[in-house]
Amino acid sequence: MAFFATIGLLSVFYYIAYLILPSILDCDLLLRFKEIFGKPISSLKGKVVWISGASSGIGEQLAYVLAKAGCKLILSARRVAELEQVKKRCLEENKYLNDDDVEVYPLDVLNLDLHEKAFLHVINKFGKLDILVNNAGRSQRAQWENIQVEVDREMFELNVLSIVSLSRLAVKHFLQTGNGQIVINSSVAGFFPAIMSGSYNGIKHALHGYFKSLVLEHFRNIDVTIVCPGPIQTNFLAESFTEQSGVKYGIKTEKDQNKVSAKRCATLMGVAIANKLDYVWIAKPNLLRLLYILYCFPNVGKWLVMTLGAKYLMKLRDAKVSSQN
Question: Which family does it belong to (predicted)?
Answer without folding.
Answer: Belongs to the short-chain dehydrogenases/reductases (SDR) family.
